[in-house]
Amino acid sequence: MPYPTRLPDLLPVVAVAGSVMYPFLVYFGLPYLPPGPLVAVAVGLGGLHLLRQRGRGLMPRWGFLLIPCVLLVLLALRPVLAAQAYPPLVSLCLAATFAWSLAHPPTAIERIARLTSPDLSSDAIAYTRSVTKVWTAFFVANAAIAIACALWFPVAVWTLWTGFVSYLLIGVLIAGELAVRRWRARQATP
User: Fold this and answer.
1) I need a labelling partner for 47 at 20 to 30 A (CA). Which of 68, 71, 127, 158 fits?
2) Residue 3 domain-assigned?
3) Is residue 103 part of a domain?
């Protein structure tokens, strides 16, 4: 039986899994660790995402470079807040990326849509623009709620939001968008 010539690229899996699990690391780590090592993990996750991107992807490199800078400043000023800042910073960078794409088309959602349907109609392009606005608003709201949870609620509430509820809402938003897209496709066919 032939063996694979190279191992599968695990970098995307590690980067995404680490980011999803990060709120739980903070929740379980803060009672036993100072915030510095947790911030180091967040900076490392940002580095993994930057390496994973390899010049492509939605979030520009400046986002992956800005996040560690903000985390390090927060670490000096408000260490526990620094440990909790990674998820809202990612949401804010994604919101900025999606908003920027509205001013500099093609929009983020249009770019994603063109991966499977390269020839989009003008109606479809307008629809992707609307969906990009929805995602921009979602990322801003998600960051605002995560920041509020970090500032005014126990770490358990922040963890519940950033580690579960926000991902649940992302799933609801994706499912809702797919349902609307299918409904629009049925309306477009005679």
Assistant:
1) 158
2) no
3) yes
Tokens 């609620």 identify what position? 153
Statement: residue 50 has pLDDT above 50? yes
Residue 152, Cβ density class (10 Å: 0-12 exposed, 13-18 middle, ≥19 buried): exposed
Q: Pick from 118, 90, 108: which is nearest to 177 by CA? A: 108
pLDDT above 90 coverage of the chain, percent: 61
Cβ atoms of 122 and 58 closer than 8 Å = no
Residue 29, domain member (yes or no): yes
Distance between CA 48 and CA 18 in Å, rounded?
A: 9
- Looking at the structure of the chain, the number of domains it has is 1
Please determine, for residue 1, whether its predicted confidence score (pLDDT) is greater than 70. no
Domain enclosing residue 51, as ranges: 11-188
Tell me, yes or no, whether 135 lies in a domain: yes
Q: Which two tokens stand for residue 68?
A: 């560690």
Residues 157 and 168: their CA atoms lie apart, in Å, by 15
- In whole angstroms, what is the distance from residue 8 CA to residue 178 CA? 30
pLDDT at 29 over 50: yes
